[in-house]
């Protein structure tokens, strides 16, 4: 039985001051350990006396399907994908990743709540459970929530046993076949919280902060705070609010009494002098600490993190943040974390964001659903603007058993939870109510859009609303695009100009762009533009010339972004490869994951990363040359060399011989952004690019050598010191290199992982969409000379040692520290 450990809702910084009151007033328990899980339907599991000893013991967040095995017949879908312009039905094998997420599964947890004393309130909150959650406490149903991506909560006060007595929590989840266009994950894949409060308290997501006036001298902070109280108990309430800056210093305070006519909501205005503004470059956060008193008794303490920043979307000017016009340099991402599946993990998310930050990316679209709260918190902290999206379909289905069946009853409830949870986050700069909804074409589709947009405006008047539209003709002629705050176009750069002439908004956003396909380290010859190209090996070329029926290569979007001032930015499909949707191999098993990512499923950047970086990262220079230079058998054959660089020109040398200097120029969309030597013939040795600045000075160079035989394994960790919390992760890239340390670009050696000491092996991925090797097993083949092994800290202070070995190679060994209370 688990005795729940309290986590204080105050950061360490505030602990000293608030410890007593925080401990005695509001308690938050994270229900993460010692859950029991079993697949299949087990209705009897709601009973307290049910024997679950033989069930698997798991920790939550948990994804029951990520351990596979992969099978092309899992959720086989015979469909005609209309948005992909398909004319006929065909059988799609890896559409949802080929993983066994379909079916029913049950979770059980036995626990005591030491703080649940008579007169207290208890709220059980799920950040997300996939899907159709039915939650039972001590044999009684606490509630139901169908949408697997949303956060939801139930008041369980009347169901919990008093402190000291045991409780049984049982959760039934069910995933249907043909319910998704990608891998949704399965299980309680996000965190579960139990809050215990007094009978008078601030409810879940009970505060709403806005900053209606911002100037150099001051910001006006408006804080609306709701209160829950039994009818007779809401008299004599007052709220003391403190605003603390990022160092924890109190910068504003206010005490207000609740008037009879206020309903159960305080409305406070505070002034923050000389505010530090939030932006991706300066992600400064403030915290409002609210103390609720009844008479002189402290009833609740509640913390709200927020930022001070202004956003505007204006005709003729576009988008501005804090008064400065800028264009979104964004990516769309799915929620899965590659080899970790859908189970949320903060270090995995932080690593993703760090890679994107270095690329110069400043915005994330959470396609096509509500994100984990941890992602929103990280975007606040690390500086990313967010488009938080809700739905992939409304009333008209895209998949047989998708959200359309729940839309009428649940859409409003789902939007409310999404907005209430995230509307205090400065990172969120717009809401998206849908992606490529077929209702763009339906009679009355614009009425649905208006209805959903109105809900967003009602719940949050400070942010605009968009839809990612693909049926542009219908969207324009059926008065759909015109009613949205932000017209979002998916893959329609050629429409921007004419659409902008007919639309009233005066600006357009590329909600989804590019969808270029590539496999890391794979190069195909001859190098030419290819649409929906399939090869026998189920891979796509990394020369970044391959795309889909509906999509483009990056440069074609860049041109429009650069030349059309009314285009307010783009969200590239996608930042990371994700499980499922293996276009152009949707019908060609084995292939279980996407090719769209700028970064592969293992988190290793593809060449395309450097193309975006060369344009988006304006702080640090980029110089990247491709392909690799180990082509036994290609001697004498044309092997084009590309250079993605932030410098205006570069010269290529093959074995010391100049192939000439190339400069970016506007001859065509590609020469504007890439330097290309198309006629180079391969000879083993060295290729070197030397970059020149605007004045013609040599400023940087990069060299690649023909690799010899695989010799040893080289390891690099993204972090070598982890928190000893049993959850922290280090991502270790293993490279198969020759004796001189050159990556062997075709190496596919089988690598084995061993972890000793204060940690454990968690998973590995190699970015190969066609590999059916299981992520959680401690061995995997390298793909194109590389893979990433993930190790997890234990709860012990100390060191862990990872060794990666392979027959015939000198092993790689790496030590990672684990430190308590990091
Ligand atoms: C879009 C869709 C995305 C993804 C993408 C692939 O049409 O909105 O979810 O399917 O195409 O290019």
TrEMBL record:
Residues 636-700 form the DUF4982 domain. One of its GO terms (biological process) is carbohydrate metabolic process. Pfam families: DUF4982 (PF16355), Glyco_hydro2_C5 (PF18565), Glyco_hydro_2 (PF00703), Glyco_hydro_2_C (PF02836), Glyco_hydro_2_N (PF02837). Residues 317-585 form the Glycoside hydrolase family 2 catalytic domain. Residues 1-22 form the signal peptide. The keyword Glycosyltransferase does not apply. GO terms for molecular function: hydrolase activity, hydrolyzing O-glycosyl compounds. SUPFAM superfamilies: (Trans)glycosidases, beta-Galactosidase/glucuronidase domain, Galactose-binding domain-like, Invasin/intimin cell-adhesion fragments. Residues 206-309 form the Glycoside hydrolase family 2 immunoglobulin-like beta-sandwich domain. Residues 713-813 form the Glycoside hydrolase family domain. Keywords: Glycosidase, Hydrolase, Signal. Residues 31-196 form the Glycosyl hydrolases family 2 sugar binding domain. Belongs to the glycosyl hydrolase 2 family. NCBIfam families: GalB (NF041463). This is Beta-galactosidase. It comes from Pararcticibacter amylolyticus.
């Amino acid at each position: 039985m688990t005795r729940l450990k309290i986590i204080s809702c105050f950061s360490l910084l505030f602990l000293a001051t608030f410890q007593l009151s925080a401990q005695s007033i509001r308690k938050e328990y994270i229900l993460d350990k010692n859950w029991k899980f079993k697949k299949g339907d087990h209705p009897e599991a709601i009973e307290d006396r049910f024997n679950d000893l033989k069930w698997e013991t798991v920790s939550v967040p948990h994804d029951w399907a990520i351990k596979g095995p992969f099978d092309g017949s899992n959720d086989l879908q015979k469909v005609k994908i209309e948005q992909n312009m398909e004319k006929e039905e065909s059988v799609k094998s890896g559409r949802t990743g080929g993983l066994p997420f379909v079916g029913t599964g049950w979770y059980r947890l036995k626990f005591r709540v030491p703080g649940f004393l008579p007169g207290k309130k208890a709220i059980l909150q799920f950040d997300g459970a996939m899907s159709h959650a039915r939650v039972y406490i001590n044999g009684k149903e606490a509630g139901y929530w169908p949408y697997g991506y949303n956060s939801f909560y139930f008041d369980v006060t009347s169901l919990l046993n008093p402190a000291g007595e045991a409780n049984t929590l049982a959760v039934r989840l069910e995933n249907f076949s043909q319910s998704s266009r990608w891998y949704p994950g399965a299980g309680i894949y996000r965190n579960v919280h139990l809050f215990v409060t007094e009978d008078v308290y601030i409810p879940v997501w009970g505060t709403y902060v806005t900053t209606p006036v911002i100037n150099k001298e001051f910001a006006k902070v408006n804080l609306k705070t709701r209160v829950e109280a039994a009818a007779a108990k809401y008299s004599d309430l007052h709220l003391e609010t403190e605003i603390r800056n990022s160092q924890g210093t109190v910068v504003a305070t206010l005490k207000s009494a609740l008037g009879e006519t206020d309903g159960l909501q305080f409305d406070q205005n505070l002034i923050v002098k000389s505010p530090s503004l939030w932006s991706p470059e300066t992600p400064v956060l403030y915290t409002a600490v609210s103390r609720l008193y009844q008479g002189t008794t402290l009833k609740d303490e509640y913390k709200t993190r927020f930022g001070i920043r202004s956003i505007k979307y204006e005709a003729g000017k576009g988008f501005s943040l804090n008064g400065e016009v800028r264009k979104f340099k964004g990516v769309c991402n799915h929620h899965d974390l590659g080899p970790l599946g859908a189970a949320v993990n903060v270090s995995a998310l932080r690593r993703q964001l760090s890679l994107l930050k270095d690329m110069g990316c400043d915005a994330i679209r959470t396609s096509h659903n509500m994100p984990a709260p941890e992602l929103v918190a990280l975007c606040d902290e690390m500086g990313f603007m967010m488009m938080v999206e809700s739905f992939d379909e409304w009333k008209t289905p895209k998949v047989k058993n998708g959200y359309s069946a729940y839309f009428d009853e649940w859409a409003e409830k789902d939007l409310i939870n999404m907005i209430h949870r995230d509307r205090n986050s400065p990172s969120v700069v717009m809401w998206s109510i849908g992606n490529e909804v077929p209702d763009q074409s339906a009679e009355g589709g614009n009425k649905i859009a208006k209805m959903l947009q109105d809900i967003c405006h009602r719940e949050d008047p400070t942010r605009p609303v968009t839809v990612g539209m693909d049926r542009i003709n219908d969207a324009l002629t059926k008065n759909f695009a015109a009613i949205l705050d932000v017209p979002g176009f998916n893959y329609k750069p050629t429409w921007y100009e004419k659409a902008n002439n007919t639309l009233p908004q005066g600006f357009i956003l590329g909600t989804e762009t590019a969808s270029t396909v590539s496999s890391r380290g794979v190069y195909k010859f001859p190098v030419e533009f290819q649409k929906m190209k399939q090869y026998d090996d189920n891979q796509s070329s990394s020369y970044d010339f391959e795309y889909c029926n509906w999509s483009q290569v990056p440069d074609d979007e860049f041109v429009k972004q650069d030349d059309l001032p009314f285009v307010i930015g783009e969200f590239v499909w996608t930042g990371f490869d994700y499980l499922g949707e293996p276009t152009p191999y949707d019908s060609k098993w084995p292939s279980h994951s996407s090719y769209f990512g700028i970064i592969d499923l293992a988190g290793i950047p593809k060449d395309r990363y450097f193309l975006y970086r060369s344009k988006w990262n304006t702080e640090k220079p980029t110089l990247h040359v491709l392909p690799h230079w180990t082509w036994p058998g290609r001697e004498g054959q044309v092997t084009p060399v590309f250079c993605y660089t932030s410098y205006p020109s570069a010269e290529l040398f093959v074995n010391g011989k100049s192939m000439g200097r190339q400069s970016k120029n506007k001859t065509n969309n590609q020469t504007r952004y890439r330097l290309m030597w198309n006629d180079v013939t391969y000879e083993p040795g060295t290729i070197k690019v030397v970059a020149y600045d605007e004045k013609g000075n040599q400023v940087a160079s990069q060299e690649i050598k023909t690799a010899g035989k695989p010799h040893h394994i080289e390891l690099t960790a993204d972090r070598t010191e982890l928190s000893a919390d049993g959850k922290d992760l280090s991502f270790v890239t293993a490279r198969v290199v020759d004796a001189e340390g050159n990556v062997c670009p075709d190496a596919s050696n089988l690598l084995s992982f061993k972890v000793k000491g204060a940690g454990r092996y968690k998973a590995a991925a190699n970015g190969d969409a066609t590999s059916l090797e299981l992520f959680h097993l401690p061995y995997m083949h390298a793909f194109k000379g590389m893979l990433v092994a993930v190790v997890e800290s234990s709860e012990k202070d100390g060191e862990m040692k990872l060794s990666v070995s392979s027959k015939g190679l000198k092993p790689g060994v790496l030590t990672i520290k684990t430190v308590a209370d990091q």
